[in-house]
Design brief:
The complex is a heterodimer of chains A (301) and B (293). With 301 residues, chain A is an alpha/beta fold. Helices cover 42% and strands 14% of the residues of chain A. With 293 residues, chain B is mainly α. In chain B, helix 1 packs antiparallel against helix 5 and helix 14 runs antiparallel to helix 17. Chain B contains 17 helices and no strands. In chain B, 64% of the residues lie in helices and 0% in strands. The chains are: A alpha/beta (301), B mainly alpha (293). At the A-B interface, helix 2, helix 3, helix 5 and helix 13 of A face helix 3, helix 7 and helix 9 of B. Bound molecules: zinc ion. Zinc ion binds next to loops of chain A.
């Protein structure tokens, strides 16, 4: 069993969902982020947030995957201040919803003043509703941006154990762990981490508070990055209990602090039965044979 | 009215929910009633999921009868605890038209799946119902069965308010989604020739694709059986499928078409069995859902 605690599944196909389920992914967390191009109306944010708690959650359930999300205004779009103000008014409508496991992904992109302002406002919101925070660290000037994110979070009185600092690399991991934060690692071809480097990090730092994710989205990315990295760790002799911690348990412990994520959500779920959940014209279209899983049924592999 | 409903629903919750949830709920009701701050109302509406389970209510026969007396067609035996709590919160929001619509529109537009389910199922308990007709019609465009069901099944709202075209679209979509038609209130009362023809076209489409036809659709046809429908029903009788045959016989039996009466003479035993079954359509629908969907 794996959890991918950072994946933008709205951008992924049903083939991806099927492959993820077969590879053992039982739950995903979809952080609210930008869509590759800036939104120009607050209504676009509203519909996007509604998708995260509505249709996408339903779609994931059709493939036997439990879908959670985080809510927040991302750092890139924080730079459109007039719009950002309106998004801030919208967020309280969504942060209390079922399956919202954190405020995120928030933080810095270009480390502008506007980014700083809305990052701080959202840290306050997280405190108010007692949710964990998922921090997106910048691609450029990463080390400084990461440290600044933690400093500001502490300035606002957040407990490091309620904060997941994401997209770490070899340069940031030590300080993030030393200061008591969860450290997320994104296995993303070309721009972030590769699986081999991830194995070395787990070997060096151990499994405590380390979380592996794919951050798969609309770019060239891999929705199977978590199970693939787990396999590589296995081949590289990382102990099984360490693999479980970094690809499942730590994410559950960190985001479970929201009270919105519980192992029973997938362990006690009825066996996947698309015939029951699907309703003619939802995800399965006419003529497709629904997949049924159960004691007597064979699932093709 | 909303006070009566609130105390009735609270009574239902007291039978199943835990004390912590009930205490939280009564605090929220008080706040929402007196302060009427939309953001606090929205937050409580969302956070009800932290206090109430998605388990069906325990509803006694007496309470079922009471529900129908309060609001004709209201069937809380199909409701879960969470949606009941959310409905109580919704009813607590002051029902002054303009601010009420502002708040409810926002709630509808930002709702998640379970919240949509609660809101749409509660339409018959809401004020200003005639102005909510477009909202209900729009809600039916969903592809999420949970939300569709909240409007279409065990809900008196569509029967009471939908114009014929929208009614027909709802029933057709229910057929398409293979939802249990016997749970649509007013299915028989609102039968009409247009819908019967739509059902017939649908059956032909299914046959052309080599697929079985949902037997419940013939229920829409019985008052309008004529030469054409008669041919379809004969074709249905010729299938080897017991459920299809039962549905065709039931349709013929309910029809006033003379050749139908003649044809039934060939099935004396089956017709006698149907005569004994006061809820024959429901049995067919249940059996279909159990074995084919
Ligand atoms: Zn991301």
């Amino acid at each position: 069993m794996y959890i991918d605690p950072h994946i933008h599944v709205v951008s992924r196909t049903t083939d991806d969902y099927e492959a993820m389920q077969k590879a053992g992914i039982v739950a995903v967390i979809e952080p609210a982020f930008w869509l590759g191009q800036p939104r120009t109306e607050v209504g676009s944010f509203k519909d996007y947030f509604s998708t995260l708690v509505g249709w996408e959650r339903f779609r994931a359930s059709q493939f036997g995957i439990v879908h959670y999300c985080t809510m927040g205004l991302n750092s890139k779009e924080a730079n459109n201040e007039a719009l950002a103000e309106q998004v801030m008014e919208l967020l309280p409508l969504y942060v209390g919803k079922e399956g919202v496991v954190a405020i995120g992904e928030i933080g810095y992109d270009d480390q502008t003043e506007a980014e700083d302002k809305f990052y701080r406002l959202q840290l306050e919101l997280a405190k108010e509703v007692d949710l964990p925070v998922l921090i997106h660290t910048p691609h450029r000037d990463k080390r400084k941006g990461t440290i600044r994110s933690m400093n500001v979070s502490e300035e606002h009185g957040l407990d490091p154990k309620m904060v997941i600092v994401d997209h770490n690399n070899e340069e940031t991991v030590k300080e993030v762990l030393d200061r008591g934060y969860y450290a997320g690692f994104t296995i993303y071809p070309h721009t972030k981490m590769g699986s081999e480097r991830m194995v070395e990090i787990v070997r060096h730092y151990g499994p405590e508070r380390i979380i592996v994710n794919s951050a798969a989205d609309w770019g060239i990315s891999d929705p199977l990055a978590v199970p693939k990295t787990a396999d590589l760790m296995r081949k590289s002799g990382i102990p099984e209990e360490h693999i479980k911690l970094v690809t499942y348990q730590n994410a559950l412990t960190a985001f479970g602090q929201s009270g919105q994520m519980d192992e029973r959500d997938w362990l006690d779920a009825a066996p996947l039965d698309q015939t029951k959940k699907m309703s003619g014209n939802s995800v399965l279209r006419g003529g497709q044979t629904p997949r049924v899983e159960g004691k007597t049924d064979i699932v093709e592999n | 009215m909303e006070n009566q409903l609130t105390s009735y629903l609270t009574q239902l919750l007291e039978r199943s929910a835990n004390q912590k949830g009930l205490d939280w709920l009564s605090t929220q009701i008080e706040k929402i009633r007196t302060e009427a701050i939309p953001s606090k109302f929205f937050l409580a509406f969302s956070q009800a999921s932290r206090y109430f389970k998605k388990e069906k209510l325990e509803v006694s026969n007496d309470l079922i009868i009471q529900a129908d007396q309060l609001v004709s067609g209201f069937q809380p035996e199909f409701w879960d605890q969470l949606q009941t709590a959310r409905t109580v919160l919704m009813l607590s929001y002051p029902q002054e038209k303009k601010p009420w619509f502002t708040a409810m529109n926002q709630l509808f537009e930002t709702a998640d799946m379970k919240e949509h389910q609660a809101l749409f199922a509660a339409l018959p308990l809401m004020p200003f119902q005639e102005e909510l007709i477009p909202r209900a019609i729009d809600g039916l465009r969903t592809n999420i069965s949970l939300v569709f069901d909240a409007i279409a099944l065990n809900n008196p709202f569509p029967e009471k308010y939908f114009p014929e075209a929208n009614w027909n679209q709802m029933v057709l979509k229910a057929i398409f989604m293979q939802r249990p038609l016997y749970r649509i209130q007013g299915l028989e009362e609102r039968r009409n020739p247009t819908l019967a023809a739509i059902a017939r076209d649908f059956a032909h489409e299914r046959w052309a694709a080599g697929r079985a036809v949902m037997p419940e659709i013939w229920r829409l046809v019985s008052p309008f059986v004529n030469e054409q429908f008669f041919e379809d029903l004969k074709k249905t009788l010729a299938t080897k499928d017991e459920l299809q045959i039962k549905a065709a016989l039931l349709t013929l039996r309910e029809s006033a078409y003379l050749p139908a009466k003649e044809l039934l003479k060939a099935y004396p035993d089956q017709v006698a069995t149907l005569d004994m079954d006061a809820i024959a359509w429901e049995s067919i629908g249940l059996e279909f859902q159990r074995t084919r969907v």
